[in-house]
């Protein structure tokens, strides 16, 4: 699907003649402008500019596309100016990506204190990293580090998340605790299989990994309830019955309030390193540091 920003980028390159001038007009980085143009050319399947050392010269296809979209873009710009709150100075804007649970727990309470604009996007880590590489996002919080040559993305580790077994406080875990005390993992697994299980579609990898690292086998069962996210799982277990495997930092408050119980941290630590993945050509580094400091202060 085509991105509207690709057309805006195309328009500014066409009217300004160079990538540098277009990036200034768009308040964007020059590599980001190049990424948008390349994406648009790949989408339409035609070369839109001839690249020279001094200027971007539109091809016949480029001229045709410009004439086709310019009126519509101008109408959109007028609408944007009409409905956007006017300010004397453009407010810095940061585009970030992470899982929705992390945003709700870490960032959401701090939003009223921010002195810059923030656009948050949720999704699979692979999709978010792709958007980061394409210049659409400025920062992604991810447990997965990708090693790509000539990438403008740097990964900085800042914390760890540990996958733990939790239970609703109405769950009878007496036999589970007995097997943990006797270190009988075979009987422990049998007992765990007798319970109601919750998981989420984006956490099944953690589920399978915890099971394999602690029982040396893949889980031979499917959770009873597969929910959209971990927040939903915790709400269902709150003063309820059932088991789930979740990152520890997402359920600490509920454990302290005794709404759910911490059952087992595993005989083997199932951990993920969390990274700040950000672009090295980012314009708003001060704002990026603000978001990083929020995370490091809350996830010590």
From TrEMBL:
The keyword DNA-binding applies. Keywords: DNA-binding, Transcription, Transcription regulation. GO terms for molecular function: DNA-binding transcription factor activity; transcription cis-regulatory region binding. The keyword Transcription applies. It comes from the Bacteria. Residues 2-59 form the HTH lysR-type domain. Pfam families: HTH_1, LysR_substrate. Belongs to the LysR transcriptional regulatory family. This is LysR family transcriptional regulator. It comes from Maribacter luteus.
